[in-house]
């Protein structure tokens, strides 16, 4: 069974630009979670999608947004990038518990 | 006070040692407890998953949950250099709502 996949693996942007990150859940999983893992800060919950709907969001500004497609894949968009958005962005899908992808490392210069 | 507290380490042990990793929490509604292992620059990998109190063993790994003390532990027996990673505890009222510890960095020296 293929795991959670994310693309791209690395992304370099400059301040003020927009970033789009993509995630494909494990086949049969309908829920997708996004987390930010900044250096030294642990995993911070960003967004939860289930059956195409946003179910919950963490304490992040509105410039962090996303969506879930009919095939349950998901996209995270970060607008007006700031230097502190540099982090590893992790996607997870849910069955009995959350299973993580390899992450997208975003660097904002 | 954070909802989940985890000693960040770093923790360094010789090969073959028994490693004890711990987390404390404050929310009595937490019923689901997980341990993830994260190698450098990779995504977290699920190691152990327990529901409510008790012990669970899987090979060299044992997870313990003490809900009365709001304390969970992960024990690694006969530690190997390949166990060198960051270990994250995670817990919540359901697997849909997890709060993560900040991670403990473990190095097992050959």
3D architecture notes:
The complex is a heterodimer of chains A (109) and B (110). Chain A is mostly beta strands and 109 residues long. Chain A has no helices and eleven strands. Chain A has strands at residues 5-7, 10-13, 19-24, 31-38, 42-50, 53-57, 64-68, 74-78, 87-94, 98-100, 104-108. In chain A, strands 2, 4, 5, 6, 9, 10 and 11 form a seven-stranded mixed beta sheet that branches. Chain A has a four-stranded antiparallel beta sheet with strand order 1-3-8-7, with no helix packed on it. In chain A, a hairpin with a 3-residue loop joins strand 9 (87-94) and strand 10 (98-100). Chain A is globular and about 35 Å long. The termini of chain A are far apart. The model of chain A has no long low-confidence stretch (mean pLDDT 94). Chain B is mostly beta strands and 110 residues long. In chain B, 0% of the residues lie in helices and 59% in strands. Chain B contains no helices and eleven strands. Chain B has strands spanning 4-6, 11-14, 19-25, 32-38, 45-51, 54-58, 61-66, 71-76, 85-94, 97-100, 104-109. In chain B, strands 2, 4, 5, 9, 10 and 11 form a six-stranded mixed beta sheet that branches. Chain B has a five-stranded antiparallel beta sheet with strand order 1-3-8-7-6, with no helix packed on it. Chain B starts with a strand and ends with a strand. The model of chain B has no long low-confidence stretch (mean pLDDT 93). The A-B interface holds A 4, 6, 31, 35, 40-43, 45, 48, 56, 88, 90, 94, 96-103, 105 and B 32, 34, 36, 41-46, 49, 88, 90, 95-103.
């Amino acid at each position: 069974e293929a795991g959670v996949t994310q693309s791209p693996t690395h992304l370099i942007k400059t301040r003020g630009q927009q970033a789009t990150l993509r995630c494909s859940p494990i086949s049969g999983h309908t829920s997708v979670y996004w987390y930010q893992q900044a250096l030294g800060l642990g995993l911070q919950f960003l967004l939860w999608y289930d059956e195409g709907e946003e179910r919950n969001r963490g304490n992040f500004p509105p410039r962090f947004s996303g969506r879930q497609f009919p095939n349950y894949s998901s996209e995270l968009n970060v607008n007006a990038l700031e230097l502190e958005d540099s982090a590893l962005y992790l996607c997870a899908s849910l069955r009995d518990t959350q299973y993580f992808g390899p992450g997208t490392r975003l660097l904002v210069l | 006070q954070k909802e989940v507290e985890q000693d960040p380490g770093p923790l360094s042990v010789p090969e073959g040692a028994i490693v004890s990793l711990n987390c404390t929490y404050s929310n009595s509604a937490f019923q689901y407890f997980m341990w993830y292992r994260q190698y450098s620059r990779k995504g977290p990998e699920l190691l152990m998953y327990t529901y409510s109190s008790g012990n669970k063993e899987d090979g060299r790994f044992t997870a313990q949950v003490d809900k009365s003390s709001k304390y969970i532990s992960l024990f690694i027996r006969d530690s190997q250099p390949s166990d060198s990673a960051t270990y994250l505890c995670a817990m919540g009222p359901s697997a849909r709502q997890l709060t993560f510890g900040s991670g403990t960095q473990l190095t097992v020296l050959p």
